[in-house]
Amino acid sequence: MKFFKPFYIQPRFFFTGIGIVLLFALSYFVPLLFNIAQLTIIILAILFVLDFFIVFLGKNKIEAQRVLPDKFSNGDNNSVALQLTNNYPIAIHLEIIDEIPEQFQVRDFKIKKSISPKETKSITYQLKPTQRGEYHFGNLNVYASSILKLVAKRFTFNNNAMVPTYPSFKQLKKFELMNFNQNSLDYGIKKVRRLGHTMEFEQIKEYVLGDDLRTINWKATAKKNQLMVNQFQDEKSQPIYSIIDKGRIMKMPFNGLSLLDHAINSALVISSVALKKHDKAGVFSFSKNVENMVVAERRHSQMRLILEALYNIKTDFFETDFSRLYTNVKQHIKQRSLILLYTNFETLNGLKRQLPYLKAIAKNHLLVVVFFKNTELDSIINEKAKTIQEVYDKVIAEKFAFEKRLIVNELKKYGIYSILTTPENLTIDTINKYLEIKALGLL
Known about the structure:
The protein is of the alpha/beta class.
């Protein structure tokens, strides 16, 4: 019985059988077809037995292996490779059904390939996860059939493989390739005119044409009997905290990812950029409680700690408690820091309820509130209204979009910086704001 368990009759056999039945039915009207039908059924039986022996004789005629990465990148296309080897002496047709994780909700996954005798072939397909966590793969099923395609043998490989899905480290690698400095302009990164100088002294050097005359060191000039200037460098080792609101307002989806996951991906990138700019990077999340805290430091293991903290952010999307955030910031962040607060406000009243806590945080730290444009509203606003209902929808959409701009102005009144952005531009806009703050020496 175990021998016949991987035995499958292919659709071609049934279609041929249906054709033979039709021939027998037509033979009542055309007797000549009766002999043809009999001959056809004999040929089908012979080919069926022959095909059975071709496919089933021998062991390990097909070898297959699923090659998985160590981890998936959330929100990005990730490659999964299948390596197949044909040990049959003839060409074989393969139908591959990989039991991919249930999170993808794909129930029609199927790849068809032909493979020559003694050949090894690699097949790659893409998966795009939209949530962090563990992704469990099932069996890799390979159905092998000969050119006759009457019977197939199932080969099963790779049980219970698991791949964790982390915040978007592919996006992180993309931005690592950019060179952030005042003399270069990379795609999406704007130049910022520097105002004045930072206070971190580097060295005294000889004056060369083009140096700022205001930096001349007259005492050193008198000693050397030639013009000498002071040289400054960017202030370093400043704490940069990415604080992520994981409450109910961050559950809204965009391009398959929640706003929370967009914020997590951005926090990972900005932490890497800050470390490369010689600053200290830290993260934590909050809703009812403050969790997943990584203190801002600059050490070799910092990015690994941040990545693990962001991966482990879990939420039931409770109502956010900003008073708990203020208490935690006051207790644990003693040094003046740049705080990037990822949250979302849909109405001005929603902001005003939390404004006292934001103002209290901004007294001791440089606070940047990062929140999101509703791109669905933009599409309604840009469409031409044709009915009364569409006019009503457009007016309501414009009202909500206007409230977003009012929120920006309200924050500005109290010296709180803000980034109003779309989820797809979140990372680049946050990096721009960070570089602008560094260039202007605001921290």
